[in-house]
Amino acid sequence: MVTGMIAQVLDLAATWTAWAGEPIPIDDRVYTPHKAIRRVTDHLIDHLAEIEARLAGVPTIPDHWHASASTTAADLAPFTAEDLDEARSRLTRLAQVFELRLTKLTTPELDHRNGEAWSVRQIAFHLESSLYYATAVGRLS
Fold first, then answer.
1. How far apart are CA 68 and CA 94, in angstroms?
2. Is the pTM of this model over 0.90?
């Protein structure tokens, strides 16, 4: 799920160097190529930290992301070929980390839940929702 989602994000991102510089309103937020990459990356990091802490038997550190409610000055910058290369490097490495971690877990480890917390498997399926940020920007021409 995670590596497939990242591949779809990067497929869309490959078109974002054509972005005209106007934020794209979706639902009650606005998105830009940089914001979409930031949100996907932050979501992956957040849940990777949660998985690792859980597997180590320590409490997770609560996140303090501003999430998609805020649009930073950096989010409004042009999305260049260099930005695309950076996004590819960052996200493909995160995909590899998730793939290596999740494929080493046993079925009981993937499905174990601590109280109301999601299982690792549920987290992996939840991460597919990160595709929303990239589809908010869409395929640009």
1. 20
2. yes
